[in-house]
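Hey,
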Amino acid sequence: MPKPRKLTNTFAYVIIASFVLSITLLSCEKQVNIHLNSGASNLVVEGQIENGLPPFVVLTTSQSFFSQIDLSTIEGSFVHGANVTVSDSSRTITLREYTLDTGGSYNFYVYTIDSSDPGSFSFVGEIGRSYTLTINYNGKTYTSTAKIPTPMHIDSLTTKPPIQTDSKYPTEISLFINFTDPDTPGNYVKYFTKRNSEPYFAGDTYSDEVTNGAPVNFPIFPGHNTQNPDSGWARRFFIGDTVTVKWASIDKGVYNFWETFQYATNVVGNPFASPINVQSNISNGALGVWAAYGSTNTTLIITH
């Protein structure tokens, strides 16, 4: 198997860690012992293509609920040597595996266009086209198709004082997004935020099931920064921030994944929450998502 090449360019990528939720049954009459199996390992896919940008795919394997999760475990979960192709129905390219240069002790890996093939640089996402991802690994084939929808342009970003103030954050500001939803039903959005020199982080999802064809105004928050999950400032905007919002139109399959993934992530540890299966759009039992984004970017410097 050829060794992955080093990739020094900066890619905005998301690594999805898959967890199996366990349920403990309690009884006041007798003790119940439940023996849980570790479960089979599944392929986990996190791939995307965006208008004007090439495809990239991160492949890992799911971990047992009982596994100790650290950077070494994550590095060992990456899948190497898979055959990964992306097709737009008229052209198919084979992605190449690269090592991401993180500057740390552990390596991360991504499949993207082959830098030794000049022709592959022209393979970028186009609005209105569908893209099929095919992965051949360990004798199995996994596929998914997603379409880049026409982007929905937002009208503006505006600021307001926060509804609840915190003395620890005197310069905190609430950021609102304003746009008019198209009068055709079935519009879905995933937004990402970038503050100052930070990379993009994934925010929430939006559906027009209730607001179809109407003006929309709602607050947005900085995308989830997994490096600072418990930091109070990580989920706030402040005076002086330069904020860019990537407003990405998505199809229903991608929306279903992000909506269920978000819910499952938020309720981890809540014994009263209803269990939910994250809805992957990958075939053959793989977990994760192949996402096609029709994106526009809007930037605001917060001055007051």
